[in-house]
Amino acid sequence: MKKSKRKIIYGLLPLLFAGGIGAYLYMQSSKAEEAKPEATVDQYIEHLQKQEFDQLYTLMTPASLDESGMDREQFIEKYSAIYSGMEVSAIKAEVKPKVSEATADSSAAENKGSGEQNTAKPEQNPDAYEVDYNLQLTTFLGEVNETQTLKLVRQETEDGSKVWRINWQPSMILSDMIKGSKVRVRTLLPERGDIVDRDGLPLATKGTVNEWGIVPEKLGDNPEAMIVQVAKHYKVSEDVINNALSQKWVKPEYFVPIGSTEESDIPEQFSGVKLQSKEIRYYPLGESAAHLIGYVRKVTQEDLEKDTEGYYRAEDWIGRAGLEQSLEKQLRGERGGVIEITDEAGKVLSELIRKDAVNGQKIQLTISAETQSELYKALSSGGDAGAAVLMNPTDGNLLALASAPAYNPNKMVTGLTQAEWDAYSADEQLPFINRFTNRYAPGSTFKAITAAAGLMEKVTTADKTHDISGLQWRKDESWGGYYVKRVKSLTPVNMVDALVYSDNIYFAQEALEMGSKRFIEGIQKFGFGDNLGLDELYLKPSQYANEANLDLASEVLLADTSYGQGEMLMSPIHLASSFTPFINEGKMVKPVLIEGKETSEPEVIITPDAANTVKDALGQVVSRSGGTAHALNSLPGDLAAKTGTAELKAKKGEQGLENGFVVVFDTQTPSFLISAVIEGVNGRGGSHYVVDKLKPFLKQLESTP
């Protein structure tokens, strides 16, 4: 029996041993599956980088959240507000490697042996864990780099399991934050650069204007009646005032701006109306330089949608026309900003990052403010529409660029009344069109270039004559009913005569003799297809023909092109530049508008002999009795000129619109060259009207030292 019991006991021993081993392994496995602090740290890093602030909240200890005074929604809102305010576009967080125990023990031993104080940390609480991590925030001002510490504790949950949670503190957002502190983001605005003339006089600068507005609580006992009076006086609708007063931000005691005024006093009978000074962009020359300088306006929703670089804000100003628009990036500068941490009262505790604003560039033009004003005055007198370009033909400096009619750029900044806007809109002469960059058929002014091309192609000479009878001519019957016409019957006619009396038939015959190929080669070098480096003016290249007719295969089109009609289009700027070879021994000088801008060297396009031959003939346009610009002969200096009248009509046989042109330069001391066009000179003397109109200006220009 005893033997039998021993057998049973011996049989059970392996089972008991195996069960003990299994239980031990199970306990070890369960212990290994306990939550580790590193897992919570990894979750924190992942959610932070993804800006999943709702998930961050679940990782914090309830006690630390109670201490912060924030519930879940407030926690999320705080993080979101701070990160969006700083425009955080990317977050990078990396845990710093911990020093190993072996390394720490080794360092401690070395310190002890050398007699140094032992700096090793005492044994840590097994329910606490700390780890440092590097945080990098990419903000709208650049990168913010910090080292932060996470403090974790092991806590028991309701089901008895243990988890690691983080003790939240304000410094986890930004290391310098404490309870109650805030993050403040301030934009540092740049000063817009001035545009100045050749002498440094301002053409676009900083100015002030009186802005009128209303303080609602001071409108008196009958606000509606007062608003009616105020609206009538300042020429705005009652709706404009009421809409301004109904904005969400308005409070009874606030000043609500409505519009600008040139008045410096408020009528005594008005209650609730107040004036204050406001800084604005100001244009000293007003209408005189409106098309050249342009103006600025507040950005629109369309501007914001087109802003691919994300620079503009709703309160910004942007160049809307002229140089203000084309040089916007140079003039606006670059905004800066500062991100700072403040206490509850707004006192700055620390500056997180700063980027100083970069002011806009000052742009100096070759323009003379005084000359610009005088030229515009001469051009716009009598209500004419047209353009005038004044340049120095030897260095290309543009001295004045005038277009009429014009608009008031200062009104465009401060705001037009409805009546003012209606007046501009109803003006048939279109005051917003920039005519010195507009392209026109240049008419007979182009004959000087045809003459130069003929001289260079060895077809034309100064004394070569054509026997022409009558006032009209056609090559043969193949032209059908089309005739080239002239205004003066003269025979025989040489090149000089043809320029002096502006003979269309002579130059049509010369062009036909050259043939289209040689004619094109001769005129194309005068700058066709080139915007002359004036990107800032959005200058469109001139053309001698439409795309489909660039070969001038039609003899009729070739003939018309020779005297500046057909499909030819030139801007007044290009027309001025195309005459510079006649002053510079054959070198064409391109126009220059911005001081210091890199420009190309003048190019020799015709021989000095050809240039001087044309120049001498143009001198006789002024000096000879009967010359089309003989009216200028009484002015001081030796002037040369070429006039032209181009008729524009929709179809043959009808009366068309006539534009008058003149190009004038001084041959003795070549310091100026002017090209001008006046629209609608029908019945007013054609190009002679333009000559007479500019004569007083030229007299003043010639007498100026």
From TrEMBL:
Entry-linked InterPro entries: Beta-lactam/transpept (IPR050515), Beta-lactam/transpept-like (IPR012338), MecA_N (IPR007887), NTF2-like_dom_sf (IPR032710), PBP_dimer (IPR005311), PBP_dimer_sf (IPR036138), PCN-bd_Tpept (IPR001460)
A GO MF label: peptidoglycan L,D-transpeptidase activity
Biological processes per GO annotation: cell wall organization; response to antibiotic
One cellular component (GO) term of this entry: plasma membrane
Composition bias, Polar residues: 103-122
The entry's keywords: Membrane, Transmembrane, Transmembrane helix
Domain of life (superkingdom): Bacteria
Positions of region (Disordered): 102-126
Pfam families: MecA_N, PBP_dimer, Transpeptidase
Domain Penicillin-binding protein transpeptidase per the UniProt entry, residue ranges: 386-689
Cellular location(s): Membrane
GTP-binding in keyword set: no
Transmembrane segments: 7-27
Main location: membrane
Record carries keyword Transmembrane helix: yes
Domain Penicillin-binding protein dimerisation, residue spans: 190-352
Residues covered by the NTF2-like N-terminal transpeptidase domain: 36-180
Similarity comment: Belongs to the transpeptidase family.
Name of the protein in question: Penicillin-binding transpeptidase domain-containing protein
The organism of origin for this protein: Paenibacillus xylanilyticus
